[in-house]
Amino acid sequence: MRFLISAPASSSGKTTVTLGLLRAFSRTQTVRSAKSGPDYIDPAFHAAASGAACVNLDSWAMTPDRIKALAAGTGTLIVEGAMGLFDGAPPAGKGSSADLAKILNLPVVLVIDAGRMAGSVGALAQGFMRYDPDLHVAGVILNNVGSPRHEAMLRHALQGVTVFGALPRDPALHLGSRHLGLVQAQERPDLEAFLDRAADLMTQHLDLTALQTLDTPRPRAGASHRTPPPAQSIAIARDAAFAFAYPHLLDDWRAGGAELTFFSPLADDPVPQADFIYLPGGYPELHAGRIAANTRFMDSLRQSPAMIYGECGGYMVLGDGLVDADGTRHAMAGLLRLETSFAQRKLHLGYRQLHATEGLLAGHWTAHEFHYASTLRADGTPLFSATDATGTGLSPMGLTAGRVSGSFAHIIDQSPIASADAPA
Which end of the chain has fewer CB atoms surrounding its CB within 10 Å, N or C? Predict the structure, then answer.
């Protein structure tokens, strides 16, 4: 069984359907999952639902061989798409879920939010099925169906289209969100009950047997790179404030012989001895006062002789100060001349091509930026030169000062970009 779950648009119910199916199938078999695109939050829900690690597969930021290598394996693979099926980066939509499905030769199951439609569902489904002749849309799952009569109308309009089932409206299966996406899995004390309820709903209303027949030949992967570790001993912050680290990069570092240790700044853990300290992104703005008051963590970070790298939230913690949404300034580590604020929110979103000329991050990288923080002050040497997804040059990103560096960009993978094409 191998398929990709997508939808005509965001907020159609893809994640809830994916989680319910992962939990339902995991009751009887081993299930692997993946998430399309640069997402840290949904994979944690996947892992909780299936009991297995979830990998990110990004058809904008990764080569096809890299994607095939990460997706390789036997047995069940369920991939959750991002946004709408054909939605990707400008200008031509590269990186869409449809691109990923074609790279991996995956049939697509389309989740349609039918709550406000009847006969029009037929035109919608037929349009998606015919839009790209190289893509196999195997059928649909109807979501937010109001009644048996509503379901009958929808099925009548979908004659000739495989309908894997119709899910009734269930307010209990709402997934709460905040400014960067869903509330994190680790923050939901009711998560197991939620997953079981979703699985029971899928079992009752979907044709799981028909979904299990969806399988296609697995594409053969060519030679694929691994990102070498920046050092042989790496200390990584991991808790509710620092949760956004890509599993494939950590796996690459382990495969390269690095020893990874984890610590919690929120628990005021001192930074372990290591050659390299990594502060991933997350939600430090929600815990800024607590982080500032945790002197064991802060003092050990300032005093460590290791190389230090922070991404997004981790970058902000390395700065002089962080202003929270209420306008209160909290003193941070003071290792970079950086002041950031959530009182003046502005969305920064998009893929990035990055280039660093020196240091442990020297080279070309694909990355993603997604945050609402405003930079009040950033003084010093930039870490990266950058372009956006269209190749348009951006202002230099991040800061580097001796052993400390960081930026708002989340590195996804090494970039195949040629040196001659590097941004100036």
Answer: C
Q: What is the pLDDT along the chain (424 residues), one digit of tens a residue?
A: 999 999 999 999 999 999 999 999 999 999 999 999 998 889 999 999 999 999 999 999 999 999 999 999 888 999 999 999 999 999 999 999 999 999 999 999 999 999 999 999 999 999 999 999 999 999 999 999 999 999 999 999 999 999 999 999 988 887 765 455 556 777 778 899 999 999 999 999 999 999 999 988 888 877 788 999 999 999 999 999 999 999 999 999 999 999 999 999 999 999 999 999 999 999 999 999 999 999 999 999 999 999 999 999 999 999 999 999 999 999 999 999 999 999 988 889 999 999 999 888 999 999 999 999 999 999 999 999 999 999 999 999 999 999 999 999 999 999 976 433 433 3
**What global pTM score does this model have?**
0.92
Report the half-sphere exposure of 356 (CA within 13 A, side-chain side).
Answer: 23
> How far is the C-alpha of 299 from the C-alpha of 412, rounded, in Å?
30
- Does residue 103 sit in the same domain as residue 21? yes
Residue 375 lies in domain: 233-421
Note whether 275 and 311 are within 8 A (CB).
Answer: no
189 and 52 in a common domain: yes
Q: Is 312 an annotated catalytic residue?
A: yes
Shared-domain flag, residues 21 and 155: yes
**Domain CATH for 355:** 3.40.50.880
For residue 78, what are the β-bridge partners? 3, 33
Of 89, 301, 312, 389, the catalytic one is 312
Q: Is residue 138 one of the residues assigned to a domain?
A: yes
Q: Which two tokens stand for residue 28?
A: 């009887």
- The reply to whether 101 and 174 lie within a common domain is yes
Same domain, 36 and 149: yes
Separation of alpha carbons 424 and 317, rounded Å: 28
